[in-house]
Amino acid sequence: NNHNAACRASWLAVAAWLGDKTLASELIAGAKERQWTNTTNSSLPYQQLGAPDCPGCDGACTGSCGQAPIGGQIWRDGELPDEAGRVNSVGYTVAELGNLFTLGQLSRHPDVGDDLFSYVSANGSSIRAALDHLVPYALGQKSWTRHTETTRFEIYPQLRQAAAVFGNRSYTQWAGRIAATGCGSSSGGCAGDASVLWWPED
């Protein structure tokens, strides 16, 4: 579910802050293909951090956080089936995409030393595929057929970030088309979105 990538991102941020590359490596491996549990041999396992179990997780990063966010939760065509099957399927799908992008950005931290944005799993799934899957829906080129409580695909921040990460100006153009229709609840529309500062156009 949508706590999976958020769980790993939270602990990856802790690992980067501590400079704990062993814990970071375990989290990255679990994000790619295999399941990750609390059996890490990190020099400072998260059980010793004095913090609660990872947010939204079932136990200690097991259960709902046990499945690899990229290799286990994204289909080859980019769909996030766990989120697409929810009552508010659009909202949860977009939220999980945001979590995946946060995870990808944290993986690039010097004390992590990886790049989940460039990773493609054995089944062909990737963070980029998850974004590309949503673009035609966000642009109104395709109709979402799953049950949902909102029809707004608020992926403007991820498109701006993707333009910088992947070096593809198509994402900038798509972000511009979304900006023309507004950015949902962002104060001041897309111009008020923080991604304008974080990921400026060339």
Word description of this protein:
This protein is mostly helical and about 200 residues long. Helices cover about 45% and strands about 0% of the residues. The chain contains 8 helices and no strands. It is globular and about 45 Å long.
Distance between the termini: 35 Å
Rg is 17 Å
Beta-strand percent range: under 5%
How many strands, what sense, and barrel or not for the largest sheet? none
**Which parts are unreliable, with pLDDT below 50 for 5 consecutive residues or more?**
35-65
Q: How would you briefly describe this protein structure?
A:
This protein has helices at 3-18, 21-32, 81-84, 89-107, 127-138, 156-166, 169-179, 195-198.
